[in-house]
Each structure stands twice: as structure tokens, then as C-alpha cells.
Amino acid sequence: MRPTTLADFAGECKPSGQHICYKYCPVCGSDEYKLYVSPDTGLWKCFAGRHNAGGKVDIGQAADAYTQGQELMDLLSGWQEPVTWDEIDLPPFEPLSKMARRYLRKRGVDDDMIKRLGLVEWEDRFRILFPFFSRSGSLIYWNSRRYSDHVGEGPKYYTADGKHPLYELRGAGPVVLVEGIFDALAVNRAGYHAVALGGKSLPKYLLPELLTLAADHDMINVLLDPDALAAALRIRDQLSDRKRVRIRVCPHGQDPGDMTPDEIKEIIG
Are 211 and 195 in contact (CB under 8 A)? Predict the structure, then answer.
């Protein structure tokens, strides 16, 4: 099979510098991690079969200047001012139990970070509450996570009503866009400015907010789970006319929340 898009490279993969290294080659069938693809240009080569069957695949960006201009006009016509978030209250809460703290330690969250983030426990719900604060310090949203499969009930995550803002953890390093809160915690522990989407996509109403948070940075790194490459490409297209965007890839079977600070630094650089 001759690949035509980035999606044609499937299966296990891992980061390799600025490339994605795939275990399987759809052309020659090699399974030796010898196929390298650039998510920025679409250029690829298999060093097992020493071929590239055309050299370049579609990476989801507009094919010509007219199409790019039209997409930009469509984006501008739907531009929204940043959402204004009202101050809200947390559900009834209490200090974190020993069980909750033990769960957080297993996820790499120590007592200093617990204090910095203002983490508390939802009273009688066996859930850790994650407050979302505005840059002025107002509480504007919350998310919660069950910390045990043996106590409590309901879904793993439960959130405040309404639209959600981005979850920002400021750091000295470049901006890294991730999916969830624990991904953001891990990336921030590695020293980066972490922003969690709350999912795999960037809703249009969050675009102005993200650009405001990243105003002091010339590039945004997108580090989603390994199964979300297509979503990462869509986010790059949403941002590429305003910011430099670099897609980063986690090793197969891992997400940022599972990784150590050193592993994250190796990917982001």
C-alpha cells in the first residue's frame, strides 16, 4: 500500500527527535521500527526497505494559498471574544484523606503541589476536587476525580456544569498543550507551562483563551495521547495562522500523565 496521508501510518510508534518512528511499514511490511515520518512536513522514509514510495504524504494542512486564505476568513468570521468566567463555589469539601493523598503520590503529586494547587476532597464522595483559578485568583470551575474503584460511585471524572475553561499550570518552559489534568501535572513537574484541553479537541470558544495564555511564547507544543494524532493535526490547523505549532508524540501505550519528568523533557527538548 502506498501511503497518502499521515493516517496511513498506523500501529505502534515512538518519538525520535522531530520525527515519529513507526514499528510497521505499510509498503514493505517491516516491523523493525525503521520507518520515520515528519509530522511537520509529511516527508517519510523506511530504512528497512530503503524506500519512500513518493516521499511525502498529506499532513492535513491546506493544499494552496487560496484554500488557506478561505479557511482563515472562515475562522475570523466565527471569531469569539474570550469567554468571561463567573466566580463559583466548590461543592462541600474537606481536607484530603490519607487514601486520597496516597493516590496522588502514586500519580507523582507531592504535598507541595497539593498545597500549590489547592486540592481538597469532595465531602463524602471519595473524590479529589481540582479547582480551576483565573489569573486574578478567582475560582471559575472545578473537576473531580474518583481516587478508588472500591469506594464512591459514578464516573471517573465529574465536573462543574457548563462550558469548561482551560486548566493552566504556569512554568518557566515553553507551552505544552495536553489532554487532561494529570497530563498537565506531569508536564508541569518537568518544568513546562502546561495547558490542559479537557479532551482531545480545541473548542472554538477556547481558542482566544489559549492564545491569551500563550501570548508570551512563540510556539505551542501539542502533546496528546498516542491515539490522538489526527486530533493533534486538527489543533495545529486551528492555530497555525497565529502561532508556530510543533506536534510531539508520546511512546506507544503511554500518555503524558504516565511519564517521568526526564521522559517528558526528552520529548519536548
Answer: no
